[in-house]
From TrEMBL:
<dbReference type="InterPro" id="IPR002401">
    <property type="entry name" value="Cyt_P450_E_grp-I"/>
</dbReference>
<comment type="similarity">
    <text>Belongs to the cytochrome P450 family.</text>
</comment>
<feature type="transmembrane region" description="Helical">
    <location>
        <begin position="12"/>
        <end position="42"/>
    </location>
</feature>
<dbReference type="InterPro" id="IPR001128">
    <property type="entry name" value="Cyt_P450"/>
</dbReference>
<protein>
    <recommendedName>
        <fullName>Cytochrome p450</fullName>
    </recommendedName>
</protein>
<keyword id="KW-0408">Iron</keyword>
<dbReference type="InterPro" id="IPR017972">
    <property type="entry name" value="Cyt_P450_CS"/>
</dbReference>
<keyword id="KW-0479">Metal-binding</keyword>
<dbReference type="Pfam" id="PF00067">
    <property type="entry name" value="p450"/>
</dbReference>
<keyword id="KW-1133">Transmembrane helix</keyword>
<keyword id="KW-0472">Membrane</keyword>
<dbReference type="InterPro" id="IPR036396">
    <property type="entry name" value="Cyt_P450_sf"/>
</dbReference>
<dbReference type="InterPro" id="IPR050476">
    <property type="entry name" value="Insect_CytP450_Detox"/>
</dbReference>
<keyword id="KW-0492">Microsome</keyword>
<keyword id="KW-0812">Transmembrane</keyword>
<keyword id="KW-0256">Endoplasmic reticulum</keyword>
<feature type="transmembrane region" description="Helical">
    <location>
        <begin position="62"/>
        <end position="82"/>
    </location>
</feature>
Length: 581
């Protein structure tokens, strides 16, 4: 409702503004043209004595200019009062919060390159408590840190909070993906795609992950031989890029052995540009949103990279269909793209509710949706898992006792020689200390900090607070994961916090690195499997140790919605046989 009103009002403002500008420009053009022609005419008429013609023309243009200016000033004034009124939204609801800037709201703090969003939210929490409101442009966000309310939004009242807030710019193909789809269509697509990430299906992609993890060990080994310092952030980005590229796009890239690989660099560039000034403009000035969406799609390197992936995946789909028809298909592609294609072809018969007749069967996912989702798995599976692995490596290198205990568990389960070991889902699931270490790393450094947001589809009541339809609700993962009431001594790395007994007694919303409820992360099993296999293989072969470039306290940044190590994470790796195991 609020969003609709905002949209309606801003459209009204836009029309007035555009009209005002057109008239103004028209007026200016008239002045210039009439000045010019009059000047020419005047030079001639001066000789013949008809100077009054120029004055008559000037009056007309002067009039138009006046009307244009008046309209412009009126629409600016309207915009100003409208924004002032909109910014009183939280005050009217009795929700505290920081004072918004007239144009940017509080977006200048949350989207500022020199401030870190999690620090800003720490300050706001200290000042306003567990529930407060802020604005990005004119979009209202209410931050809800109370765990019962979190559970209400993500699970109990999910039917009221199905969608994420609409994006600043509606970029294709994002709006066709699980991340961007809304309401009924999201539900349908999620139902079709979910089995792709089931435990049984994960076994299929095991061998791709194992092969890529072996390359990781080889790459780290090369650095270890020369005793080089290693930026593990870059190394793990290579791993996750290769895994997800092969699994989701059938794209073979050698980005682990070739850190300057073009595909990997394009992906990095894409994510860097996801927070560019064009997006800021679209958020703060809805008037130019549609134009900017076109500019982004056609002219920006991001758009071109996306298009190249769309073309590539469409090519693979066509090829696989042709192969199947001609009977030459390789039966075991074993990747996510194949699973998506199979899921989409599980045709279903729908009954028309109105007359009870059975409608013709249809393909459950269109090709556009298969491609869009394969593309979003690339984005979802690249940076997040690389970040998780990087923080884990950092914490293990700086906590030798934990690393040793983990190594002992790995050695007991996986045996002494791990070089060519194919670690499967079942084995990995039995490694309980590995699970504790990974969960604690995800608590201390949740890779995704600003993405668990929902838009209220109807009015809701959260505790004492009335939340009108259209309000965006944000769950502050970082603050929850570092709340001393939930996690004593919250900045200490202690995997024992994930002892089953302690876990049982904790609020289910106290640990939510993957979100929670029906719209939580779809790739959780994939991410866990990939990260655990990579860590297991790496630690069986190498001991991670800090080096001169290792930061005592990591410098973090939040360029979009993820939590990144700003300057990478530099460590050394020592071959296990060379050290006392
Ligand atoms: C450690 C790694 C990862 C973390 C920490 C992570 C975190 C998250 C979070 C916080 C959300 C939002 C959940 C919510 O709104 O409640 C999300 C959504 C999502 N993630 Fe992940 N993710 C990870 C890996 C992956 C991988 C590997 C994939 C795919 C291969 C993936 C695919 C998705 C998708 C498709 C969604 C949107 C789900 C929907 O709206 O239905 N993620 N993820």
């Amino acid at each position: 409702m609020i969003q609709q009103n905002i949209r309606k009002a801003s459209r009204g403002i836009q029309i007035t503004l555009v009209f005002g500008l057109v008239v103004l420009l028209d007026g200016i053009l008239h002045v210039v043209a009439s000045q010019l022609s009059s000047w020419i005419f005047w030079r001639e008429t001066w000789v013949i004595g008809k100077r009054w013609t120029f004055l008559a023309n000037w009056n007309v243009t002067h009039h138009l200019l006046g009307v244009g200016l008046a309209l412009l000033i009126a629409s600016l004034f309207h915009n100003y009062t409208y924004r002032r009124r909109a910014y009183r939204f939280f005050r009217r609801l009795g929700i505290p919060g920081p004072k918004p800037h007239l144009i940017k709201g509080n977006g200048d703090k949350m989207r500022n390159h020199s401030l870190v969003a999690i620090d800003v939210m720490d300050q706001w929490k200290a000042e306003f408590g567990d529930v407060y409101g802020y604005f990005v442009g004119m979009k209202p966000y209410v931050v809800v840190g109370d765990l019962d309310m979190v559970q209400q939004v993500l699970i109990r009242d999910f039917h009221k909070f199905v969608n994420r807030p609409a994006m600043g710019i509606e970029i294709r193909p994002v709006i066709n993906t699980l991340v961007g789809l809304r309401s009924h269509r999201w539900k349908e697509v999620r139902r079709v795609i979910s089995p792709t990430f089931s435990t049984r299906k994960m076994r299929k992609i095991n061998s791709i992950i194992n092969r890529c993890a072996d390359i990781l060990v080889e790459v780290v080994g090369k650095h270890a031989e020369t005793r080089n310092e290693i930026d593990f952030y870059g190394v793990f980005q290579g791993l996750t890029c290769q895994v997800i590229g092969e699994c989701a796009l059938d794209t073979k890239v050698d980005c682990q052995r070739q850190p300057q690989d073009e595909f990997l660099n394009s992906l990095r560039q894409f994510l860097k540009q996801a927070n560019n000034p064009i997006i800021d403009l679209a958020i703060y000035f809805p008037l130019v949103r549609e134009i900017l969406a076109v500019v982004c799609r056609v002219a920006s390197p991001c758009g071109q990279f996306t298009q190249s992936i769309i073309d590539k995946v469409q090519g693979v789909i066509n090829q696989r269909r042709e192969d199947r028809l001609s009977g030459t298909s390789t039966p075991n592609h074993g990747d996510i793209l194949q699973l998506l294609m199979e899921a989409s072809e599980n045709r279903q018969e729908d009954t028309d509710d109105t007359d009870g007749r059975v409608r013709p069967t249809h393909q459950l996912l269109t090709d556009d949706e298969i491609i869009a989702n394969a593309w979003v798995f690339l984005l979802g599976g690249f940076e997040t898992t690389a970040n998780a692995l990087t923080y884990c490596a950092y914490l293990l290198a700086t906590h030798a006792d934990v690393q040793q205990k983990l190594y002992e568990e790995l050695r007991d389960y996986l045996g002494e020689s791990s070089g060519d070991l194919e670690t499967d889902y079942n084995t990995i699931s039995q490694l309980t200390y590995l699970d504790k270490v990974f969960c604690e790393a995800l608590r201390l450094f949740p890779p995704v900090v600003l993405f668990v947001t929902r838009e209220a589809a109807e009015d809701a009541q959260l505790g004492d607070f009335h939340i009108p339809a259209g309000t965006n609700v944000q769950i502050p993962i970082w603050q929850i994961h570092h709340d001393p009431k939930l996690w004593p001594d919250p900045y200490r790395f202690d995997p024992e916090r994930f002892e089953p007994e302690l876990k049982k007694n904790r609020h289910p919303m106290a640990w939510i690195p993957f979100g929670s409820g029906p719209r939580s992360c779809l790739g959780i099993r994939f991410a866990m499997l990939e990260a655990k296999i990579a860590l297991a293989k790496l630690l069986m072969n190498y001991r991670l140790v800090p080096c001169e470039r290792t930061e005592e306290k990591l410098t973090l940044s939040v360029p979009t919605v993820t939590l990144n190590p700003k300057s990478g994470v530099w460590l050394k790796a020592e071959k296990r046989e060379q050290t006392s195991a």
